[in-house]
Design brief:
The protein is mainly β and 139 residues long. The protein has one helix spanning 31-37, and strands at residues 5-8, 15-18, 24-28, 42-48, 52-55, 60-62, 67-71, 78-83, 89-93, 108-109.
Length: 139
Amino acid sequence: MARLHTGGCRCGAIRFEASSEPFYTSYCHCGDCRRASGAPVAAFVGFLTQDVNFQGTEGTTCGQYPVKRSFCPTCGAPIAYRDARIDHQIFLTLGAMDHPEFYAPVIHAYVSEQLPFFHLEDGLPRSQKHTAPRPDDAT
């Protein structure tokens, strides 16, 4: 049986659990993720949408097609992002997980947008663009 992966916002108004193992963990250096997270880099853990259950609400969403981001309307904590091109997946913010130490990122995305003063010497692969495959990616 898979371990239950849980998390939520700062104030507790949003809680979620994922019943499957994550398929993805990544850092993202893109400007949009930086602005949404308020940090110099964002980190995400990906699950299949069908395996994630929210208690109550998923939060308020914002964003421009194809990306929608969710956050708690009470405390403002970022929760997740979804991409309409891969809507069977949800990417939860690492900071929203109850045990973020379980989800070490394995790659850096959008390093072309990385802040010049912020660099992690972790030996992980680095991509110039997104790292979660989209249908329009060349095969």
